[in-house]
Design a protein that fits this description.
Elements (H helix, E strand, L loop, with lengths): L1 H26 L3 E6 L15 E3 L6 E6 L9 E7 L4 E3 L5 E2 L6 E6 L6 E10 L6 E2 L4 E7 L5 E7 L1 E2 L7 E2 L2 E2 L2 H4 L13 E4 L7 E5 L1 E2 L1 H6 L4 E2 L2 E7 L12 E3 L1 E3 L3 E11 L4 E2 L14 E8 L10 E2 H4 L11 E6 L6 E10 L1 E2 L4 H5 L3 E8 L9 E2 L3 E11 L2
Parallel strand pairs: 3-8
Antiparallel strand pairs: 1-2, 1-4, 4-6, 5-7, 7-8, 9-31, 10-11, 12-13, 14-19, 15-16, 16-31, 17-18, 19-20, 19-29, 20-25, 21-29, 22-27, 22-31, 23-30, 24-26, 24-29, 26-28
């Protein structure tokens, strides 16, 4: 059995290497970067950094946030960088009317045998709301390294159609877990929707084993997580902390966040080497951060997993204005209310007015899951989250 397990792991690694070799043979058909160029278009955006999007290798939906869809020009020339030798249709720089809805771009590989389709959309900035009930969920299908597909839940906020309709401001680590876990239904993943929330539907986050491949990569567990922001699957096997990009733009100062939860810890807490840590009980975590989304040089700044790895030192980060954390989340079988208050300083008014701050809100079933420490089976349910802002 041990030899068979090692053979499977070796086969997985060989297949990943084979995929890389195939791509190098001229089969690449990716959009690597998309941007709007020109001073005359800057007025449509809150920040010039919002005019450019670096596209992850697993992403096919590209979105840009603008001040207003009503005032957006109906002939916007979107620039695209594709992989060497590939072609794209419509062509890079060809004006498009994004006010009518998303535009589909098709990238064809150099050898002409491979194609990939991307959806590019512009919408009004998805501001954090005052209440998140997690009623809106859809099932998306993701491909895997070794072929096949897996279905997972994606949460979104519903906005009026004139503001772009669905706002995909929530992210999870499910796309990364798809490379490691064996199931293929939404409920087999670390983060999924449940019908029995505190009121209506809710969210279930559970810590799972990442299987033989995860253990081989020194990433033995997959933690249930949900956060405002984006997840880039590109670095899952090399630098997992780079995958989580926390926060979405806001123009308001948060003061307090409340919500409801249930939690049950797993039976055995293990470290990154899957060694049992006697006497330690797993804990979930809920926290939020308000930070500036550009640095002093005017470059885009996003809080990632590396920045929050040492949570107690967040205020050492000059980009951070305010931080909130739920201090204690004891195990409970019944829905229990929690609250957390922000500490720190207020962001300058001109920064807020220009959407220069991001609000990150994070839920995790294992507090130290980013270091791959926790207990398989730890399960956190969350629902009915409300954000109170300064008037």
């Amino acid at each position: 059995m041990k030899r068979y397990g090692l053979w499977v792991i070796a086969l997985c690694c060989w297949c990943m290497a084979a995929c890389i070799k195939d791509e190098a043979a001229g089969k690449e058909c990716d959009i690597e970067c998309a941007w709007v160029e020109g001073e005359e278009y800057e007025r449509f955006f809150y920040q010039t950094t919002e005019m450019r999007r670096v596209v992850g290798s697993a992403e096919t939906d590209i979105t840009f946030s603008v001040r207003s869809m009503l005032s957006l020009t109906k002939a916007l020339p979107l620039q695209l960088k594709v992989t060497d030798g590939a072609t794209v249709s419509p062509a890079s720089g060809e004006p498009q009317d994004f006010t009518k809805g998303p535009v589909t771009y098709t990238v064809t590989s150099q050898d002409g045998q491979w194609q990939r389709r991307y959806t590019v959309a512009f919408h009004e900035a998805a501001l954090p709301g005052e209440r998140f009930s997690f009623e809106n969920v859809e099932t998306q299908t993701e491909g895997t390294l070794l072929g096949g597909t897996k279905r997972m839940h994606v949460f979104y906020e519903q906005a009026p159609e004139e503001d772009g309709g669905r706002k995909y401001c929530w992210a999870s680590g499910n796309a990364g877990a798809a490379l490691l876990v064996t199931g293929d239904a939404p409920e087999d993943f670390p983060t999924y929707s449940v019908a029995d929330g505190y009121a209506g539907r809710g969210v279930c986050l559970n810590t799972q084993s990442a299987g033989a491949l995860g253990a081989m990569m020194n990433k033995p567990i997959a933690t249930g997580s949900l956060f405002l922001g984006r997840f880039l699957v590109d670095y899952v096997l090399s630098d997992a902390l780079r995958c989580t990009l926390f926060g979405i733009p806001t123009d308001r100062m948060p003061v307090r966040i409340t919500g409801w939860y249930r939690f049950k810890p797993g039976e055995r807490f293990t470290d990154q080497g899957m060694r049992v840590v006697e006497g330690r009980v797993d804990e979930p975590c809920i926290y939020a951060v308000l930070y500036r989304n550009t640095d002093d040089a005017g470059n885009s700044y996003v809080l990632d997993g590396h920045a929050v790895e040492h949570f107690d030192r967040l205020f050492d980060n000059p980009q951070v204005y305010r931080v909130a954390e739920v201090k204690s989340l004891p195990a409970t079988d019944t829905w229990t209310q929690w609250e957390m208050f922000f500490e720190g300083v207020s962001a300058p008014k001109d920064v807020l007015d220009n959407m220069g701050c991001n609000l990150a809100l994070v839920f995790s079933s294992s507090k130290d899951g980013a270091r791959f420490e926790g207990a398989v089976g730890s399960t956190l349910y969350v629902d009915e989250v409300e954000v109170l802002y300064e008037k």
